Amino acid sequence: MLKWQTGGMDFSARYVALGDSFTEGVGDDDPTRPNGVRGWADIVAGQLAQSNPGFGYANLAIRGRKLRQIMAEQVDAAVAMKPTLVTLYAGANDILRPKIDIDSLLEEYDAGIARLSASGATVLLFTGFDVKGSKVFSAMRGRTAIYNELVREIAENHGALLVDYWRFDEYDDWRLWGEDRMHMSTAGHINMAKRVLDVLEHEHVIEVPELAPVRLLNRVEALKANARWLRESAAPWVSRRLRGVSSGDGLSPKYAELVRPLS
């Protein structure tokens, strides 16, 4: 039995989601929600809240945040909410930097997980995705593998649950990714919500939408698509890093306080 379950859902259950764009929901556009996105965490919260009028949900994740920022800005804020469930994914934005000290970063990660676990909450962590199918990001594969082994060890040491994203082969299908090729699509977020709920052993009724048929591009079409991606996604991403700015600058958390999640 999970710590946040007592013969069914605890009516005082509080779920706090921490992290970066992955948890904020980037790629699953919804103009009716804060920051214009929904995402897997919102979907999970909606499922957990069913038949639970007292359920509360906060999402402190902000796109572009690096691991140390997440530890400094979000962990203590989450603990103050006395959560019964915390999810955390941090480190992807660090792995993509030219230089990284993974051991040092994961020491801070470990300290943050210790604080979250000591709060009494069930803590759920993620490994990083295996980018073997990306010609652009596959160079980061070795870094991610090292990061993942340290995350697995930390999860084991603190009794945290683990969503092993690295092993989710369905994400080799580019239809689960957005046009920027960096964030999950709506279908990808829905599938991730199912994966998280499965790890939580929580019943759910979620259907991943039927994916559009794969359309093979000819050489000219592929070149045009790649040029558009370079212009609209890759170049702005590189430019932000050269200028030391983030896509999350000026943004506030979607739900900085506990709220009733949207359905």
Describe this structure in words.
- The protein has one domain: Rossmann fold, CATH 3.40.50.
- It is α/β, with parallel strands linked by helices and 263 residues long.
- The chain contains 8 helices and 6 strands.
- The relative contact order is 0.18.
- The model is unreliable at 1-9 (pLDDT under 50).
Task: List key phrases describing it.
single chain, 263 residues, alpha/beta, Rossmann fold, six-stranded mixed sheet, 8 helices, 11% strand
Give a brief rundown of this model.
With about 260 residues, the protein is an alpha/beta fold. It is built from eight helices and six strands.
Summing up helix and strand content along with how strands pair, one would put the structural category as alpha/beta
Query: Beta-strand level of the residues, as a percent range?
Result: 5-15%
Specify the number of helices.
8
Percent of residues in helices comes to 40-55%
Low-confidence stretches: 1-9
Major β-sheet strand ordering: 5-4-3-1-2-6
The shape, in one word, is globular
Total domain units: 1
Q: Specify Rg, calculated over alpha carbons.
A: 18 Å
User: Care to count the β-strands?
Assistant: 6
At the fourth level of CATH, the homologous superfamily is: SGNH hydrolase
- Tell me what the CATH architecture is: 3-Layer(aba) Sandwich
Please summarize the sheet with the most strands: 6 strands, mixed
